[in-house]
Automatic annotation (TrEMBL):
It comes from the Bacteria. Keywords: Membrane, Transmembrane, Transmembrane helix. Residues 136-235 form the NACHT domain. It comes from Lentzea roselyniae. InterPro entries: NACHT_NTPase, P-loop_NTPase. The keyword rRNA-binding does not apply. The lineage of its organism: Bacteria, Bacillati, Actinomycetota, Actinomycetes, Pseudonocardiales. This is NACHT domain-containing protein. The chain crosses the membrane at residues 48-67, 375-397, 403-424, 436-462, 468-488, 495-511, 517-538, 559-577. Pfam families: NACHT.
């Protein structure tokens, strides 16, 4: 039975039951009591709560009705999703370099492409039949620039039309793997989470509807950008996408998936295309030397060659089609130097999109461009020192207010849980002579200040339950411990372990009472949330750093962080020497710290703040003109020169080959070439 169907049936049943109880029992009784009538014997002393109960029931019923309406809207919003997919894919096709070439040349078509499947050559117009014959799963294999992405998008439009005519046909969605990074991936569901985010971001498909559609195989996932995934993550990525993918673009075949090879352009196809563009490309055929013919085997090469010839109108063309195209695009610019440096900077980011007209990608995507020293200062000096300072401050407050035993439990548990979360990278040897003592001191002081705030928040949380009745506090501690343990225990069956963990405070409170456990739980919860978010931020920013920098820094464990954290924590625990404290409070601290793995999620602001600190090393290069502050003018200029395109309000490079060429170019040599 489908779990979503069971959930919906339970929701509807609850809604009907609430309405019946409210209308048949509570509302008449409340009206009777208000008008001076007799109180039903069933209700007894609860008669004064009738109207509040009616109000609560009405609010819950309204909430369930809204939820049902929203969920029903999400699961039935098929037509809107198809419209958004069609609009986005058409925008991608219209902004592509191939479409811009057609506009420049005044033609309505691109060169005819053919594909090969099982040794048989097939026209690209029959790709839908090939897709059906291969069981709706295949890999489009071909080199960069062979037209795979265009074929993928055209196939998506065909499948959109099919889905409109057939309610049982899946909804096709095109996603770009260039936005996915698997550095440090450990959870097998991370790809699913990324896919759901992309479907929501690009096509407005909510996470709940996307989850249901993926489970029911109502979505056909068409994947582009697999070649953008780093080699170290390629195998992992292929295994993750296999259960979802329908069509994948790749330069290499994928194991266990049927391959469809995009054939290179033949000389006849090239000549046919040149003749169809007459007279715009007259003279191009005579300029094609044997060296050029050898490399003129893809739609990208033909488009770049045609545009370059159209602008130059000369008889000699080099074999570096991308380089010649870039030079010709920028040759008429008086300020070509700053433009080239800025485009090189953006190309080195390796991002599929470059943001809106005014906003550049956030600084955490600039980290791969930093030298090793600023990153070493951040990850080796500032981060461990800040964590040590925070542990010291929280341990001191815990010992001062709750006693020595809770402080010792906090030090041991906090250090162990950070290792368990495993988000902080192991990066600990400086490149050359770089000590960074001042950075460590500043990081420690910042950690102490943050730890004091966390400790004060924990004391406030622990004191909230003081006025509660004994039974309420007791039940709250047991229930809270259960849910904290539920998020902490890994595995497929965490409930039995969570019950056992929740039984510990239930038994101990017979002797200690619930208030002592609540006081410690507030401190542990506050510290656990702060530590989890901190560890997640460090791990996320670390995964943004390019692997080469990681390897240069990954030379061993820290020479001082392992002894420093416990030692400083013990120094902080000296605040509790005046009082030993209750072991019930110590148990509460340990229970509250169980929230640490749950808090280690991918929030936005801590990552951005940490990346902002690391990216300060870029301030000087930016001020020297590496990236122009006239960002909007720069992006508009590059778009006008066909180096950038704009899709859904976001700029991106017209082709990955252009981006890679600009990322590896020598700006000085390129400026000289544009002047010539």
């Amino acid at each position: 039975m489908d779990p979503s169907g069971v959930t919906r049936a339970a929701r509807l049943t609850a809604l009907v039951a609430l309405c019946l109880v409210t209308v048949v029992l509570l509302l008449p009784a409340a009206i009777s009591v208000s008008t001076g009538g007799a109180v039903p014997g069933l209700l007894g002393e609860f008669a004064r709560w009738l109207w509040p109960a009616v109000g609560a029931m009405v609010l819950v019923a309204i909430g369930l009705a809204i939820w049902e309406r929203v969920r029903g809207h999400e699961t039935s919003n098929r037509a809107a999703a198809l419209g958004r997919v069609e609009a986005h894919v058409k925008a991608l096709l219209a902004s592509s370099l191939a479409a811009q070439t057609q506009i420049k040349l005044g033609v309505l078509r691109q060169p005819r492409l053919s594909v090969r499947v099982d040794g048989e050559a097939v026209s690209s117009s029959d790709l839908e039949a090939v897709y059906d014959r291969l069981g709706h799963t295949m890999v489009l294999v071909g080199p960069v620039g062979s037209g795979r992405s265009t074929l993928l998008r055209e196939l998506c439009l065909v499948l959109v039309e099919r889905a409109r005519n057939d309610p049982e046909a899946p909804i096709p969605v095109v996603v770009d793997l260039a936005t996915w990074r698997a550095y440090g991936t450990r959870k097998p569901t991370e790809f699913t989470a990324w896919l759901l985010r992309e479907m929501n971001r690009r096509y407005g498909i909510s996470r709940s509807a996307g989850t249901i559609w993926l489970r029911r195989e109502r979505v056909a996932v068409l994947i582009d950008g697999l070649d953008e995934v780093p080699r170290i993550d390629r195998a992992h990525c292929e295994s993750e996408l296999a259960p979802f993918a329908s069509v994948v673009c790749s330069t290499e075949p994928i194991e266990n998936l049927p391959s469809v090879y995009v054939e290179p352009l033949s000389r006849g196809q090239v000549l046919e295309y040149i003749a169809s563009v007459s007279p715009r490309l007259d003279g191009l055929e005579s300029a094609l030397t044997p060296a050029i013919w050898e490399r003129l085997d893809s739609p990208l090469a033909l488009n770049l060659l045609a545009l370059t010839h159209l602008d130059r109108q000369v008889d000699t063309i080099g074999t570096d089609f991308v380089g010649s195209f870039v030079v010709e695009r920028l040759s008429a610019q008086r300020a070509a130097g700053p433009t080239i440096r800025a485009l090189k900077f953006l190309a080195r980011l390796g991002r599929p999109d470059l943001g809106a007209p005014v906003h550049m990608p956030h600084r955490r995507w600039w980290l791969p461009l930093l030298p090793t020293r600023p990153l070493w200062l951040l990850f080796v000096r500032a981060v461990p020192a800040a964590y040590a300072g925070g542990v010291c401050a929280v341990a001191f407050l815990t010992g001062l207010q709750l006693g020595l035993w809770p402080a010792l439990v906090f030090v041991v548990a906090a250090s162990s849980l950070l290792v368990l979360v495993n988000r902080v990278p192991r990066v600990f040897h400086p490149p050359g002579r770089a000590h960074g003592l001042l950075t460590a001191v500043l990081g420690f002081l910042a950690g102490v200040f943050a730890g004091l705030l966390v400790g004060l928040a924990g004391l406030w949380l622990g004191g909230i339950g003081t006025p509660w009745p004994y039974a309420v506090a007791y039940v709250f501690v047991v229930v809270a411990a259960f849910f904290l343990a539920l998020g902490f225990v890994p595995g497929d069956a965490p409930i039995p372990w969570a019950v056992l963990i929740a039984a510990a405070p239930g038994v101990s409170m017979i002797w200690t009472g619930p208030y002592a456990v609540l006081a410690g739980m507030g401190m542990g919860f506050s510290a656990g949330v702060a530590g989890g978010v901190f560890a997640a931020a460090v791990g996320r920013v670390w995964r943004t750093v390019r692997p080469g920098q990681q390897q240069r820094m990954r030379l061993g464990r820290p020479w001082w962080i392992q002894p420093a954290v416990p030692m400083l924590g013990l120094v902080g625990a000296l605040g509790g020497l005046g009082a030993v404290g209750s072991w019930g409070t110590a148990l509460g601290v340990a229970l509250g710290l169980l929230v640490t793995p749950t808090a280690a999620r991918d929030y936005v602001w801590p990552f951005d703040a940490l990346a902002e600190v690391a990216a300060e090393g870029l301030t000087r290069p930016l001020s020297l003109g590496e990236l122009s502050f006239r960002r909007k003018a720069l992006l508009h200029l590059a778009q006008d020169r066909l180096l950038l395109t704009r899709v859904d309000g976001e700029y991106r490079f017209a082709h990955v080959a252009l981006r890679d060429h600009l990322a590896s170019c020598d700006p000085t040599a390129l400026v000289r070439a544009t002047r010539r």
